Amino acid sequence: MTARVENSDLTSPVSFKANAATHLKKKTTIYAVYVIAALDITWMFLQFSITPFLARKLGFDTLWFGYLQTTVGVMQLVGGPLFGRFADVLGARAAMSLACTANIVFFILLAIADSPVMLFVHKLPTIVMHILPASQMVVSDLSEPEKRADGLSKLGLCFGIGMIAGSTVGGHLVKSYGETFAACSGAAGSSFSLLLVLSFIPRTTKVQSPASKTDSETKSKSIFDVGQITRLMKFPGVTPTFVVKIVSSLPSGIFQVMFSIITLDFFKLTPEQNGYIMAYFGVAQMVVQGGVIGRLTSRYSESSLLLLSVGISAFVGLAQAYMQNVFHFCLTVVPMILSLSIFNVITDSLLTKSVPPSDTGTMLGLCASVQSLLRTVGPTIGGFLYVNYGIFSIGFLQFIVNSSVLAYLLKRRLNKKDGYKE
User: pLDDT exceeding 70 applies to what percent of the chain?
Assistant: First the structure.
């Protein structure tokens, strides 16, 4: 009895203080990750303001610009899962530091790119430029499972902030000072992001496993162990969700990778006007992620929200098929952002919950590879459709594909309900 009381008296205050300190440390880390993610998206959209116009100056047509985008897609398709595995094995700080360093090299190469070959070479560092998946891993590791979707949605808010800042600043820098100065600004900004990572991100955000490890477990910590990556597909529910994520994302991904060309050729926008459009995207992203997604995830089930996002995406595709000008496009932006935001947050949340906490980085790397896959095949498919059939074909493809996915999800949900009745 006495021993129990003494043990309680000794441990309770210490335990309380330790828990409070741990909670504060987690919050500080998560807030730091949000800042780093917002800055990274800023530099990314700064680059989007540079590359299309520099490519045109260097003689790229729509087809060759598609090849350039495909190069990025291939690099990140290969690098995404490996980077996720790197983050799981070596920790968040090492992974985010690597990504920021690659960003710096990327912008330096962009600043000195004076030929088509150099424009391709500057894309090589993109193989490890995965700050956003690393940020998602940290948030997933440090958030409670029931709050994970809300935590991931806040990264979408950071995405909106970065989109506004990067697009607006990038457009003005390119117009006033040229592509080289804008690229050097991106390198300087990425250096600042690296300093933040080294200052605020802990070495690892994983729950510490027991000290005793077998030799086989230690050997399994290879970054290039493909088996350790592909085994995640064997967990219950992972493969169907992953297939839905790929198929449903394909048409919207095609539109996104072709958007720079659409703004130049179809809408006839200047660099500054393009920056304003991207800023409008960012405002919509902030409103949706900051004021809508969190409330939806707290009130409705993830399966219901998945159905909602796919349904909205189908009708957005139909609307984009018949748009004629920038005003028509702006009307579709809010529902498009809503569907994409819900879909990405819910699928990422479902997939990370389906695997052990030690593998969240690898799983998010695989999720990032979906977007990379779209960048790989998207420019080729999108360029073919746009050149031969116009913008109508891209929007109509999105309508057909997402309507089919919606029918599949509804049928699967009804089958589950029938099974429960039995």
Answer: 89
